[in-house]
Amino acid sequence: MTKRVYISGIGMISSIGKNVDECLESLIENRTGLDHIKYFNSIHQGVIPVCDVKYSNEELFDLTDCDKKGNYTRTSLLGMIAAKEAIADAQLTAEEIRNSSLISATTVGGMDKTEDFFNEFLVDNYKPKLRNIVGHDCADSTEAIADFIGNKGMITTVSTACSSSINSIMLGTRLIQHGFAERVIVGGTDSLTRFTVNGFNSLMILDKQACKPFDKNRNGLNIGEGAAFLVLESEDIIKRSGKKHYGYVSGFANACDAFHQTASSPDGQGAFLAMQQALISAQLEPNQIDYINVHGTGTSNNDLTEGIAMKRIFGETLPPFSSTKPFTGHTLGATGAIEAVISLLSMHHGIIIPNLNFSEPIEETQLIPVTQIQKNQNLKHVLSNSFGFGGNNSSIIFSKA
Amino acid sequence: MQAYITSTGVISPQAEINAGNFPETPQLYEGNRLKCVDPDYKEHIPAAMLRRMGRVLKLGVGAGLICLKNSSIEVPDGIITGTGLGCVEDSENFLISIKDNNENFLTPTPFIQSTHNSISGQIALFSKCHHYNFTYVHRSFSFESALLDALMQLDEKTETKNMLVGSADELTDRLFIILQRLGYWRNDIESNLHLLQPSSKGTIAGEGASFFLLSNTKTPDCHAAIADVAMFYKPENTEETKKQIQAFLDRNNISMNDVDVVLTGINGDISNDAVYYDTFKMFDFDNLSYYKHLCGEYNTSSAFATYIASLALKNNTLPSYFNLKGKQTNKVKRVLLYNHFFNVNHSLVLLNQC
To answer: Looking at the DSSP assignment, which residues form a beta bridge with residue A143?
Structure first.
């Protein structure tokens, strides 16, 4: 039997808090992070709401407690804060951090600086400062995180649109299962940019109000920003050290919808395959899943097809499910890791976070999410979905040991 | 576990090499910039899709589909792509459109196609592949990460028999200028074939896409076998670099003497190349080969090197123009690829004859 891979540390920063405790408190007290655009220039300020992290880049730098002034993008800063919290939570020593592997995920990397650089560049190729472009590529934030926490092991970056960071958790788990690593720090980070806000706006899938996942009158998503990291450790380490953990990764799968660049197939085939194969790899029956943290973006297409796919897997009686995106927004490359942390917190504290802003079910599926916080739940197995452009669909299952 | 290369699809600045042959002399490019020789994309990609594709999508999807066409497989058991910078042209186009239209009434196409995983996604779309679909974006670790993932995938599930793995990076005019300002390129170079004389600062720019169909069983059409891949980050000094390479050789139970060709990322830049010379001096090994004069420098050029290695192993020969001393190698049973990017991202790939 494959050895288990445990989660021994978690870290998260999002629009609802700068660390796991603050985020959890917001989730329990129904406080969303939805706000006006504040930290970048856009004509959409005051029109399109976003779930932004409530700190300027200078304030984020202070939050890192980094002793070395650097040329950090917002994506890097968010990742540094969440990764640092995760390794502290796992109580890793400097030596352990050094020898860990690091897998990060992002969709636009340093685009926040690039887009300002590029506007100047279009006027005069030789004028804009190069320091504002060197952090453009996706690897930059990963290396900034590695250098900041003192990691020297294998590092890499995943970018599969909105499923990116669930995929980094999956990859980290596999690296341990294959014996390439004993300890992997996995997660994702993305900051808000004019690029992504305008991108999703051009697709006409941004709600000008708070998003309403799985509601009949849903009208699009709210974009957010943030980062989350998890420390994965091998069964051997956990047994040897007896250290605390949040459970283990029991199953996962990635599948491709292969239907359209952005829209999902009418029967949610990719989502169906991801959930089905994740259950097979976890050796679990659908009725053993106690909670689903759905992708639930609030777009017409996603929620309908994800619902259809869930019904194909679970039949008419679904486990309790909710989308937590009304709290955090859709944080793109960070969303899989953020929702993994929320799923682990749900399992750990025995709570189910409600799906805000829901009033009427979608006609075709008639699915009703959890709308009030549920406490004292015994959640043994939780499933989390993340789906992205390119039909990239991933599901992961966490289980209580 | 070894993975066997059963098919390839390559678009590089070297037309004859793309076709699977080592030419007498490589294609010459004056100046410091190499461009891919485009195939007739219409033969491989539906015209309606082709019109909307940025250059790297054409390169990547084109090479991926050529690789599948050259194989007996219609639907691979998974698609894994590495790209250092992804869809540069589409990102530029969307940024321009944001600026020119003041964020109003934008066309979503360049945004959709700017997504880093659009190469893998579109190959899946065309080949109707519902299986594993992944994309890595980490400088000179991008292709190597994809390769490592493919090796793991082929070892994981009984139903996974093959994996389409590859990479693509494009060079736009704007990217060329930005990298020039960052000091990447050498301005005084006569042609790509003068890359090493005399050594100076900077190198030549390139681009390309290389895809491989890997199988977990040896087949009669096998070109070469990929035995292992490793990456290491920011070694502190040459001693550590040497140690990492030695550990890689050790875990494959071989020594440097067992390697017929060491294909390095030597690119003509003095400080870049010193890393190779200094490291191999410590191994007392001086029979180095290089490939970047044929494809230029870009994040995923190591995929092109993997292709060169597979051709050399298949034909049991490596032409003289790859060797630093100008020697032809007539027995090629094992090739070690070693590439690094600014002494930060180092990677090793070991290939064997089938």
So the answer is: none
pLDDT, average across residues A120-144: 96
- What's this model's pTM, rounded to 2 decimal places? 0.98
Kindly state whether B232 is in contact with chain A, defined as any CB-CB distance less than 8 angstroms: yes
Q: Are A41 and A105 in the same domain?
A: yes
Alpha-carbon radius of gyration of chain A: 20
CA atoms within 13 A on the CB side of A333: 37
CATH number belonging to the domain at B3-215, selected among 3.40.47.10, 2.40.50.140, 3.40.50.150, 3.90.1150.10? 3.40.47.10
Contact B191/A at CB under 8 A: no
- From the CA of B124, how many Å to the nearest CA of chain A? 6
Whether A295 sits among the annotated catalytic residues: the reply is yes
User: ipTM, 2 decimals?
Assistant: 0.97
Confidence of residue A70 (pLDDT cuts 50, 70, 90): confident
* In chain B, % of residues over pLDDT 70: 100
What architecture is the B227-352 domain classified under in CATH? 3-Layer(aba) Sandwich (3.40)
Beta-sheet strands, E only, within chain B? 3-11, 78-82, 132-136, 162-169, 208-215, 224-233, 261-264, 288-290, 334-341, 345-352
B174 in contact with chain A, both atoms CB, cutoff 8 A: yes
What is the distance in angstroms between the Cα of A294 and the nearest Cα belonging to chain B? 20
Annotated catalytic residue within A44, A136, A295, A348 = A295
Q: Does B24 touch chain A (CB under 8 A)?
A: no
Does B132 contact A256 at a Cβ distance shorter than 8 Å?
yes
pLDDT tens digits for A207-239? 999 999 999 999 999 999 999 999 999 999 999
Say whether pLDDT at A1 is over 70: no
pLDDT at A88 over 70: yes
